[in-house]
Amino acid sequence: MLFNKPVNQISKEEFEDFIAQKKIEGREHDYKIILPDGKNQRDGYDPINEFAKDVCAFANSIGGYLIFGVKENSGEPTDICGVEIEKDNFERLKQKLLDYVTSNIEPTIQGISFGCIEGFEDGKSVVIMYIPKSFLAPHMVRKDRAFYYRADSKNERMDVAQVRESFLSFENLRDKIINYSNGRILRLIQKETPFELSETPTAVLQLIPFSSFDFSNIDIVPGFINVNEYGIKSCINKSPYLALWGSDSRHAIDPCSYNIDGCLKCVNKNYIQIYTNGIIESLDNYTFDYYKIEYGNNKFYINDYATNISLKVKQYLDLFKELNIMTPIYVSFSLLSIKNYIAISKYGISAIPINSVKFQKDSLSTDSIINNYEQNEVNRAIKQMLDRMYRAFGVSECPTDIIH
To answer: E-assigned strands of 86-142?
Structure first.
């Protein structure tokens, strides 16, 4: 990684030291004298389109940095000239650059971040824009209807074979993630858990960042996190990240502990495991015991459970954002040992069967992919996943109000 910290944490001294090293433009970074501005079009030159090519090329490759306010000669930095930013106007500048990206590149690139280093000559600043490697590649520049990649210090058009390979790479990555998820479910069916499971159904929720399975350049993949550096232990000690269901200190094994995979918390026959590569796995073996006591054998209070699934997915996504893990995220929900259960609703203190449909398989799995952290996209993915669960119990879809 060019800078070993987020761009908004780079100091003036650290940046000056970086420039003093005379690092030549390459696959990971590009120097720019000025910021892109639509007013500077001339003689067929479109600065916004050139900016879009830069961003697109980095996203389609291994990610990289656009550094505004540096002069270069044959790719070697020669002077920090800085750029003018109006006082307290950096947030507006960031939004302007993001708008350029959104309106000129498709699909949308996620996870772009900015840093502003102040204090240079004449009150000028240096702006650093980090474009992460995208797991939704390939991205296309709309005006050119072309895909670009970074080749050394230049942006090159992808040919048909490269575009096809990029699409296939995404499919292969998704298949790896699904295979991993299925493998974990198989191990849970075989009772490989931190505590002994009861015979009632078990629910498993998995959130798997695509970045967790990309090994092309570990140094720059945000999904490879460190449990000590990012304080995962303190994160999962916060009650919203506890598990699929509520807590009960009478059943607590250990409030939180490190293990070979990352960090584990077990409470009330629930656990949440956060792996060092960013994967979250949460298991609930308590709720169906409670349902058995409250409503009798083989009853699944579906609306209540769906509400909690939606809530937990959103809370785990908040944790991902706190850990700077970027989308897309694969989400999987499974019910194990669920055969012959029927879905119920609740009217007052009574349990009312929604219908007479009994689930006829031993387990149920449903999944979805969250492409970005926007609320509408998160709700879409959760509803898609829960709709399949409802249909498995003879109900057409999950009620919309459960998701929101």
So the answer is: 105-106, 113-117, 126-132, 140-141
